[in-house]
Design a protein that fits this description.
5 helices; mainly alpha
Length: 115
């Protein structure tokens, strides 16, 4: 109900307040908004990470370009199909594969070892 509900109930008699509370229904719009928000900003962060990987040159550039592509795809899919959250699933799995590739490349290059 929040602050707006408390202000709306201010000065009402008990019966009106009970009717107002009974009229409230649980909505998934808030959760859907948070899911979309997190996916878009994950994509933004991944694009920024790609820029850092390209600038730093520590890892191969194909990993950076892959991160950029996945980040832009995450943003595009989330913004283009706001009500179809299942369309994001392939991007989620490709992100997991990208992270695995980063781990393999880092292990093979000796980055993050006991040095």
């Amino acid at each position: 109900m929040g602050a707006w509900g408390a202000l709306d109930l201010d000065g009402r008699v008990e019966d009106e307040a009970q009717r107002f509370i009974a009229s409230l229904r649980v909505s998934t719009h808030y959760a859907t908004c948070l899911v979309r928000f997190s996916r878009v900003f994950f994509g933004v962060g991944q694009v920024m990470l790609a820029g850092g990987l390209l600038y730093g040159g520590i890892l191969p550039s194909w990993l950076a370009w892959g991160a950029a592509a996945l980040g832009l795809a995450a943003i595009a899919v989330t913004m283009a199909t706001p009500d179809e959250l299942e369309r994001y699933r392939p991007i989620f799995h490709l992100n997991a594969a990208w992270m695995l590739a980063v781990g393999v490349v880092m292990l093979r290059a000796g980055l993050g070892g006991n040095g």
